[in-house]
Amino acid sequence: MYFKLKISPSLLAADFGCLADAALEVEAAGAETLHVDFMDGHYVPNIAFGLDLIPALKKRVKIPLVSHLMISNAEERLDDFIKTGTDYIIVQEEAVTDLNEILKKIRSNGIKTGFAICPDRPLKEVYSGLNNIDYLIVLGVFPGFGGQKFIEDTLFKIKEARDFMTKNELTFDIAVDGGVTLNTAGKIVKAGANELIAGTAIYGAGDIKKAVQDFLALG
Ligand code: DX5
Ligand code: ZN
């Protein structure tokens, strides 16, 4: 491996009764970013978090917050997300009308950006978007819920993204979200991911700090 492996715990699997403490715990353990899922009960059949969580976390947490928007109307709600102070805004590529336009708008506000791609979507349809991102999320599961099994077919897409990035001399993080465990992480990293987003495997572990460090040790 020729890059530093980064770990991004997903707050969706944390104890909702103490979210800031859950964020601080993984920050202290060496997490690079914190993954915050927004679900609207429409784009996905689940509802998670509200906008006010971001400024509340920003008061206490230093690592960058990655807002993953699993919502149907990202364009309409974009200004609200920009105002939260989030460090990254990641949209679902197939859920927006004009992918490149929204990515550029996010960047023009000084916020890092990127898109997430579902297991059944071909990357080649959004190659042009790869020129405008800081962060790609290859979804290893269909979005909506934590604790699902990693879909092995998505490994080829990770490799495709890495090859595209190298060939076109681009620089963005390739993160994988969904089904990332200590068992699946090895092949995910081998395929070309440099950031692992993990919810259940970190917050569901008995020792959260050790779980982060076990992931980091794979790098
Ligand atoms: C899935 C979410 C993920 C989720 C991952 O829809 O986008 O961020 O928290 O959970 P695990 O790691 O449990 O698969
Ligand atoms: Zn996510």
Overall description:
The structure is a single chain. By secondary structure, this protein is an alpha/beta fold. The protein has a single domain (6-216), classed as Aldolase class I (TIM Barrel), CATH 3.20.20. 32% of the residues lie in helices and 20% in strands. It has helices at residues 19-29, 53-58, 74-83, 99-108, 155-167, 185-191, 200-203, 208-216; strands at residues 6-9, 34-40, 47-48, 65-70, 88-92, 112-117, 135-139, 173-177, 195-198. It has a 9-stranded mixed β-sheet with strand order 1-9-8-7-6-5-4-2-3. Helix 5 (155-167) links the parallel strand 7 (135-139) and strand 8. Helix 1 (19-29) runs parallel beside helix 8. It is globular and about 40 Å long. Bound molecules: D-xylitol-5-phosphate and zinc ion. Zinc ion binds at residues 10, 35, 37, 68, 177.
Task: Describe the structure concisely.
With 219 residues, the chain is of the alpha/beta class. The protein has a single domain, classed as Aldolase class I (TIM Barrel).
